Amino acid sequence: MNATAELTVETADRVDVVDITDGVAGALPDDHDGLATVFVRHTTAGVAINEAEPRLLDDVERFVATLAPRGEWDHDELDGNAAAHLRSMLLGRDATLPVAGGAPDLGTWQSVLLVECDGPRERTVGVYPH
Ligand code: ZN
Fold first, then answer.
1. pTM to 2 decimals?
2. Which domain holds residue 39?
3. The sheet that has 111-116: what strands, in order across it?
4. Any idea what the CATH number is for the domain that residue 27 is in?
5. pLDDT tens, 22-66?
6. How many domains does the chain contain in total?
7. What's 44's DSSP letter?
8. Which of 3, 87, 94, 104 is 20 to 30 A from 72, alpha carbon to alpha carbon?
């Protein structure tokens, strides 16, 4: 059983995409070969593996904002963030990636992206080597 690490990620906007690849890499045991699951411990954020090109990250933010309209859901009566929960459900809260020699074995253009749907706030991401 490998140790689980936890990352803390600050997000800056209501919808925000943060490249957490370096943090995930730093959380992996030096000698790990296998897989690692990155798990976002929240109901209004998600994780994706894609290209961290700045214009694409802006596009992702615009796209995420279209996934569910704001302000017309029952849960909004409680805390006004139903759209963020729904967007998070579509994104998914975990990603599994290959690990070789303690480093993420990603494709050339792949990065691990935390997708904030109800920021800005502090997020906690678990990294589970297996
Ligand atoms: Zn809520």
1. 0.94
2. 5-129
3. 16-19, 111-116, 45-50
4. 2.60.120.460
5. 999 999 999 999 999 999 999 999 999 999 999 999 999 999 999
6. 1
7. S
8. 94
